[in-house]
Amino acid sequence: MTVASLLRKAKPVNVREAQAKLSRLIRSKSPSMVLSHGKPVSFLIPYEDMLDLVDMLDDLKDEKLLEEIARARGEYARGKAVPAERLFRNMGL
User: Fold this and answer.
1) Residues 68 and 90 sit within 8 Å (Cβ to Cβ)
2) What beta strand segments (E) does 1-80 contain?
3) DSSP letter at 36?
4) Backbone conformation region of residue 38, classed left if phi is above 0, alpha if psi is from -120 to 50, else beta
5) H-helix or E-strand spanning residue 27
6) Number of H helices, E strands in the chain
7) What are the residues whose beta carbons fall under 8 Å from the beta carbon of 36, sequence distance 6 or more?
8) pLDDT digits over 51-66, tens only?
9) 10 Å Cβ neighbour count for 44?
10) Any idea where the domains of the chain sit in the sequence?
11) What's the CA gap between 91 and 81, in Å, rounded?
């Protein structure tokens, strides 16, 4: 799951509809974007999706992982392949 895919899947609902259908929105396995006067003000997402987002944020704190990603992007931009074995080894997998 990416943040962009989560945003694309979000069903827009206005504040009044969200208030009236809160129980249903909470039980839903789909994200909802709450709008006030047509502008986003809140976002409801399933618990598992939130855990995935928190995991992604934690990964962004890993400087070694970020350095490896930057190096791989540079190699990719130069047309070089990035061996999966090296990536996994550097990640300790």
Assistant:
1) yes
2) 11-14, 32-36, 39-44
3) E
4) left
5) helix 22-27
6) 6, 3
7) 14, 15
8) 988 998 888 888 888 8
9) 18
10) 1-45
11) 17
Structure tokens, 3: 């943040």
Residue 1 has pLDDT above 70, yes or no: no
Let me know if 32 is exposed, middle or buried by CB neighbors in 10 A (0-12, 13-18, 19+). Answer: buried
pLDDT tens for each residue of 19-45: 999 999 999 989 999 999 999 999 999
CA angle, residues 59, 8, 52, in degrees to nearest 5: 25
Q: Is the pLDDT of residue 87 over 90?
A: no
Q: What is the CATH number of domain 1-45?
A: 3.40.1620
